[in-house]
Structures are given as C-alpha cells and as structure tokens.
Amino acid sequence: MKPHLLLLAYYFPPAASIASLRAWYIAKHLSRCGWKVSVLTVDPRNLTRIDEIDGFAEKVARENINLVYTNHSWRFLAPWMLRTSNAGMRRICGGILRQLALRLGVEPESGWFLHALRAARSLQPDTITGVLATGPPYFVWNLAARIGAGLNRPFVLDYRDLWCSSPHEPPVRFKVAKRLALRLERKLTKSASAVTCVSPSMATILNAQFALGAKLHVITNGYDPEELVAVRPKEFSEFAIVYAGTFYPPKGIIDPVFEALAPLNEARDSQRYQWRFHYYGDQIGLVERAASRWGIRDRITLRGRRSRAECLSALKGADIGVVVTTVQETNDLADLGIVTGKVFESTSLAKATLIVAPNGSDLALMFQEESNVEVLPGSSIQQITHFFRRRFSASTPTLNPSGEFAWPSLVRKLDAVLRSALSA
Questions:
Q1: Among 356, 345, 373, residue whose Cα is nearest residue 21
Q2: Chain centroid to CA 16: how far?
Q3: How far apart are CA 381 and CA 165, in angstroms?
C-alpha cells in the first residue's frame, strides 16, 4: 500500500508565486516515487494573482495528486492577492488592521488557518501516513502540528525561508510578538519528526537555535528538466539581459547591475555593444528610477507582470539572466543562505547567468564549477562590468545544468527523509 502524504501548501499552482513551484515539484515527484499525495491549499478562486498553466488540471490528474481546496477569511489582510473589497472605509479600516497585524506578527495569509484545519478534520486518519508543511506562511507549521495531533500522525516542516531569524523581519514588530513567535518555532521544530530547509547556511542557523541534529536536512530549490524542454525561447533583436522577479529593498536592489552597465552605454561603447535590459515584474517604478540614476533609461525595456510561461521564454532567449539576493557584503548566515527558486530558472535556461550575492554565499559554492554562471558581490562593480564585456564577445555556450539540482534528484533525497521520519 502506498504511503499517503498530506502536503500543506498555502501557495500552489495556479497561484502566481515562485513559492508555489516548490510545492508543485515536491508533490509531482513524490507521487512518482510511490507516494499518494493530497495537497491542502487555497481555492484559486480566492486569489487575484493567477498564472494559468495550460493543461494543469490534466497534469495534476496524470500525476495522481489529490487537491483539497478551501475557502479563505480575513481577506482584508492581503487585498493585493485576495479577492476582496478595498475601497472607501474598508480600505481605511483594513489599512489600520494590517498595520496592527504586522506589529503583532499576524501574517497576511492567516485567514486560511481555520478553513484548512476544518478541511483536514474531514480526512480519514487511517489513510494518512504523515503531514508535510512548507512555509512561509509560517502558521502552516502550527497547522501541521494541530492536524498531525488530530490524526495521530507525525509531521515534517519545510523551510523555504527563515522564520524568526529572517533577514526580512519587519523592524516594527512588537518585541513580545517576536518572543512568542520564537517560543512557538522552538516548540514546533522540537515536535517535528524532521525539518528540511533550502541551504546549508540556513541549516546552520536552525541547528544553532534549536539543536535539531540528525533530523535536519537540506533540500535545495531546483529545476524540473521536463518543464525546460517544453520552453520555447523568445527572440530578441539585441543582446538581451533579463531579470524576471521581485526585488527586496534595501538589500535586494538592481543598482549594482545598472552601475556596472553604465560604462557600456558611454559614447565609445554604445555602438560597439548593442544590448538591452528587459525587466519582467511588478516593480516598474523602482527599476525605472534606478535606470535613470545610472543614465541607462534608454537601454531598459519595462515589460511589467507577465505570465510565468512568458518569463521562462524570455530567460531561454536571454544572453544573460540576472538574479539578485542581496547587494550588501555580509557575513550574516541568513543572507548567505538565500537560495531562491528563480536562480535555477535562470541557470538552467539563460545562456549565462549573473548572480549578485555576497562572497562566501551558498550560491557561490553551489555554482563555483559552472562555467556559464558568475556569482559576484554587489560591491564588485568593475568585475560585473568585466563579466558583461566578456559575455558580449563570447560564443554561445552549451547549457548543461547540474543534475544535482534537478527535482527528480532532490526528491529522491526528500523521499528517503520522509519515509524514515514518518515511519518512526
């Protein structure tokens, strides 16, 4: 009889979020490893940001994945992604409540908690082997513990990002809220049968905080080879540099890249190097202001939010893909351990990839043997400029992404972790 995993994933396709992809790849490839997988997630009819995937329902059925959709309350906490009225007094009151929630540590997605808990209670406990919760949002780990206790089944926590040690922790949060969150995180990690995270530095932080020992495992983000084969490259008329994704100021900004490109827009180089930077994402104003500061606005094409299929097509047609984690030089493990999923989209599709990350980062170690990937700190402007100059004159490389970061390989490790943890 197949083991049956209940996967708690707030973000799951067709939700337009890079976070949804890790959950999808886990569900898909665990199913192929002999698991029955049920995914408890938000009904996409509640969401405003949907990335329609051709034939997704058929893909889910073909992989034998059972989707359990639920409703969502407290939508005023996240009007940018949930369908709700946000006009007039509702906007004013909602804004006040959102600021209070931020200070109290109440996550914008928290209105899903009770709906997910009710849905889980309707499941037959005898058919469930265990629970895997991927976060953020971080309350899903508390949800996993509650559901696991109700079903009398073990649970496993998957960290995509750090919780209480997050480098993106809001400075306005009340100290008492931080202390309570840390206490809850310690309790949940202690109770979990296993904990997974996306980078070695993240694992070092978690082990130092909670002494997790042998039950802590690193399962990085990665790419799906099947998906890449189906991507058709976009044709660009000039040498194309592509950034597709979100920035996280003040650490995650595009300025070092634009500063490095500025010399290549001067009179002596402007005719020699015919290049264009294409931005795919929501933060058009941020990118436009940075381009103007560095005098390269005429070289920037702002494409705005596009479907993931369009972004992948652009990356596959790009001469250089760009990813920024943090532009600051730092020894903080929380920053060194950022391993976002969009890194692997670029490294497995674009002809070359520039990753702006600190010296000694996990990404620098992961890609040190990859000839088409350069990891440079944001302070090394001349080196970044030199990288662009080399790529302008380089021949088109043959892409051969490392199989170590392919999801079939990653999930084989996760499969072993889950079978051991959930059978204990």
A1: 345
A2: 11
A3: 29
Q: What are 385-407's pLDDT values in tens digits? A: 999 999 988 766 666 777 889 99
Q: Which residues of 272-294 are buried (b: 16+ CB within 10 A; e: fewer)?
A: ebebbbbbbbebeebbeebbeeb
Tell me if 42 sits within 8 A of 15, measured CB to CB.
Answer: yes
For 185, the 3-state DSSP assignment is helix
* pLDDT score of 306: 93
Query: CA-CA-CA-CA torsion for 300, 301, 305, 311, nearest 10 degrees?
Result: -100
Residue written as token pair 């088109």: 396
For 300, the token pair is: 């920037």
Q: What is the three-class DSSP state of 407?
A: helix
Paired sense of beta strands 373-376 and 353-356, if any: parallel
pLDDT in tens, 175-219: 888 899 999 999 999 999 999 999 999 999 999 999 999 999 999
Counting runs of H as helices and runs of E as strands, what totals does the chain give?
Answer: 17, 13
Look at the block and give the residue holding tokens 């058009």. 284
Whole-model pTM?
0.93
Q: What is the DSSP letter of 133?
A: E
The set of residues, in sequence order, having a beta carbon less than 8 Å from that of 293 and lying 6+ positions away, is 255, 258
Nearest-CA neighbor of 387 among 308, 319, 290, 297?
319
Residue ranges in the chain whose pLDDT is less than 70 = 172, 267-272, 395-399, 424
